[in-house]
Amino acid sequence: MTAIRHDWTRAEALALFALPFNELLFRAQTVHRQHFDPNTVQVSTLLSIKTGACPEDCKYCPQSARYDTGLEREKLLELEAVIERARAARAQGATRFCMGAAWRSPHDRDLPQVLDMVRAVKALGLETCMTLGMLSETQSLALADAGLDYYNHNLDTSPEYYGEIITTRTYQDRLETLDRVRRAGMKVCAGGILGMGEGLADRAGLLVQLANLPVHPESVPINQLVPVAGTPLADAETLDPFDFVRTIAVARILMPASHVRLSAGRESMNEQTQALAFFAGANSIFYGEKLLTTPNPDADADRTLFARLGIRPEAGLAEQPADVPLYQNQDAAGLWYDAAARTG
Predict the structure, then answer these.
(1) Is residue 183 among the annotated active site residues?
(2) Model confidence over 185-241: pLDDT tens digits?
(3) Per annotation, catalytic residue among 85, 96, 174, 189
(4) What is the pLDDT of residues 113-142, one digit of tens each?
(5) How far apart are CA 336 and CA 339, in angstroms?
(6) Which residue of 16, 59, 92, 144 pairs with 299 in a disulfide if CB–CB is 3.0 to 4.6 A?
(7) Is the dihedral angle over the CA atoms 175, 181, 185, 187 positive or is it negative?
(8) Residue 126 near residue 97, CB atoms below 8 Å
(9) Which of 27, 54, 90, 203 is catalytic?
(10) For this structure, is 61 an active site residue?
């Protein structure tokens, strides 16, 4: 099945949000089945390799040096500690290992150690992902040369609401980092956060921004705000679970062949909400008890839920037979095509 690339408008996205809930989920599940096995979910693990003391003022983030959240600052981890955690993640069933550092952008003095982490985790047979803040062209090329598979850099929210959340870097700064990552040859992981006081138009605006990038992000994390005492959003209103699921469904329709990930906030979701999110097109999660500094369901709970739903973890690259094509691929022009159709 071929998916035609579409330049989405905010009005079109809002029209999807306005559909009756069951109609929206039906459409999203139909799109999802055209591109993925509906009963597999990609599993990642996230590790904070440098915690706290970030100079940015993101209102949601306990790692900002501007807020008193009681977070203990930690220096960049040693390589052996990262390798130990990556091995544990692999043993728990993760196929991708993501590493995050609380930087505005990496210091060149730290880059060699970071590159060693990429190489070491790759050697374990895991996909690699990093989020280190803004990147220069030189840093992007160095990470790609070391073998980094994915780079995460979220847009967070719509361009219009962005200034209410962050003032220390611009929306354009984020777009330029994503462009450098893509041109360096890495895959893009980019999404946003729900529940920060944004309106429906902002959720639509975020998804339209992501969907109208020159190439869809291969991974789209949809986070639900985890309010942290000491941050300006500590008392943010709790997000309606149906609004969260609707956003997952619209993301699936707008970006049909991207992995849509349930990220931060899963700890507060009941099993029924998560099951609806999977039906709406979510097909990636983080395993592990913590996402950088916020809680996350443990791997045993996720395995139990997977068993109840008949879901199995997606095979890692090392586990996939060479003669089995991916469900969908994307060509250089950003158009989606069916791998089996092209090769058959």
Answers:
(1) no
(2) 999 999 999 999 999 999 999 999 999 999 999 999 999 998 888 888 888 899 999
(3) 189
(4) 999 999 999 999 899 999 998 999 999 999
(5) 9
(6) 92
(7) negative
(8) yes
(9) 54
(10) yes
303 is catalytic: no
Q: How far is it, in rounded angstroms, from Cα 85 to Cα 321? A: 27
Tell me if 284 sits within 8 A of 290, measured CB to CB: no
Quick check: is 189 catalytic? Answer: yes
Which residue is catalytic, options 27, 85, 96, 98? Answer: 98
Cβ atoms < 10 Å from Cβ of 15:
12
| CA distances from residue 334 to 30, 159, 175, 337 in whole angstroms, order as listed | 21, 23, 17, 10
CA distances from 88 to 45, 95, 110, 217, 323 (A): 10, 11, 24, 27, 29
Q: Is 58 a catalytic residue?
A: yes
Please identify which of the residues 85, 180, 246, 261 carries the catalytic annotation: 261
Q: What is the per-residue pLDDT across 259-290, written as a single tens digit (0 to 9) for each?
A: 999 988 788 889 999 999 999 999 998 875 54
Higher pLDDT, 304 or 53: 304
* Torsion sign over Cα 31, 184, 332, 324: negative
Of the two residues 298 and 334, the one the predictor is more confident about is 298
Judge whether 109 counts as a catalytic residue: no
Cα separation, 169 vs 173, whole angstroms:
6
Name the residue with tokens 């395993």.
287
DSSP helix/strand/coil, 287: strand
Over residues 9-31, mean pLDDT = 97
The pair of three-digit structure tokens given for residue 163, joined into one six-digit string = 């200034």
pTM of the predicted protein model:
0.83
Our answer to whether residue 33 is catalytic in this structure is no
Q: Is the pLDDT of residue 333 over 70?
A: no
**Residue 26 has what pLDDT?**
97
Tokens of 111: 């880059």
Residues sharing a CB contact under 8 Å with residue 38, sequence separation 6 or more, in sequence order:
29, 32
